Amino acid sequence: MKIAMFAEGSYPYVAGGVSGWIQMLLKALTDKEFVIYTLVATEEDRGKFKYELPSNLREIRETCLNVEEEFQKKKKVKLSDQERDSIRSLLFGEDIQWERLFHFFDETSYSVNDLLMSLDFMELTRELYIKKYPNCVFTDFLWSIRSLYLPLFRVLMTPIEEADCYHAISTGYAGIMACKAKYLYHKPLILTEHGIYTREREEEIIKVDWTQGIYKNLWIDYFYMLSQCVYDEADSVISLFQAARQIQTEIGCPREKTRVISNGVYVEEMENLPGKTKEEEEKINIGAVLRIVPIKDVKTMINAYRLAKAEVPSLALYLMGPTEENEKYYQECLDLVNSFHIEDVFFTGRIQVKEYLGKMDMIVLTSISEGQPLCLLEAMAAGRPCISTDVGGCKELLYGADYDQYGRCGVIIPTMNVEKAAEAMIQLATNPKMREQMGRVGKIRTSQFYQNEEVIRKYRELYNRFE
Hints:
By secondary structure, this protein is an alpha/beta fold. It folds into two domains: 1-264 and 451-467, Rossmann fold, CATH 3.40.50; 267-450, Rossmann fold (3-Layer(aba) Sandwich). Helix content is 46%, strand content 15%. It has helices at 17-28, 81-92, 98-107, 112-116, 119-132, 138-156, 172-185, 197-207, 214-233, 242-250, 298-311, 327-339, 353-357, 374-381, 394-399, 418-429, 432-449, 452-465, and strands at residues 2-8, 33-40, 57-64, 165-168, 189-193, 236-239, 258-260, 284-289, 315-320, 345-349, 362-365, 386-389, 410-413. The strands form two sheets. A seven-stranded parallel sheet has the order 3-2-1-4-5-6-7, with helices on one face. A six-stranded parallel sheet has the order 10-9-8-11-12-13, with helices on both faces. Helix 12 links the parallel strand 9 and strand 10.
């Protein structure tokens, strides 16, 4: 069975998270053959893979979203009435003619540049401007619309080959590419959302300063439009936890398509991990398995640790994960540690988690956004209590779902709250019995509900159903 996967901003360029999940699935399903269509940010990122590719992964096809365009018309564009109508439906977001669009972009001889710079596209943009945005400066509006649709047109023009099943690992651009594949070859489409793509993009756009005013709304509506297409076309829609499934239905996914398949961990691999040496027993180690990037809000963690260490001097903080993804942010974190002269903070860089996890007394996550983080599942399986912000499925992991009566295996805190994070660190640091009890609950919960073997079984059954 040949399965085509569609990934955006993850595999195989980023270690951990969604990428780690894809790698796990590929390595486990050795009876399946995979091709991955992956969307890369820039040309410089091509081929910079962070994983050893499994033998059943036959090919990786890269599409770059942010190629710099000259924006010079090279070929005169003349759209038919039907082609104009389909592009108009896309720009206006009304009764979008996706099948006609898939057909047009698969067959067209025009380049992305030709279309965006064409008189037809400008006239369609002018129609939208007059009807909905007459108070803007037209030239600004036109260039904003061109920028908006450039990555989508590039994705729609990407050649796709036939497979037995298509599996999108998000909505957005990767999901649209998978929808086009379904249209071309009439084969089933599975969607797995590790986070809710539209909500994540909305949060990002609200915060950025590269677009302002009505243009923020344009971008937000645009991503919701793309996701709705994927929800409509998918045969099965997977989320990682019940709250995410509820959000999917609220924003337009038919509930009968949805189901939950949680993330998992190889529980037996988290047993009998190397522990502390006699010298290390003097310290209470706080661990964080993460990329040093803004969305993980490492600065809140460092500031909270600073307050907690003032109360519990035996604390030490291990920030375990790659630092090269955002070197500017990493340097800011180093500067924060140095400016306050915070002792016993260790940036380990990329590590083998199992070599460190047994030495930790607790694991902390201060992310602004998450799905169902593997770092918490691994810590729970290793019997380590956790502190986490109330994002994604973290509360369900630490406090249990409705059907789970085992109790708490950690502490949930608000996002971006230094004081609450510090209080939680102090609480666990000064209460070894609580740490031990929470550790026991975490081990039981992962054994009962979050085993990778069960994840693999469910996806094998899902693929086989569509074979």
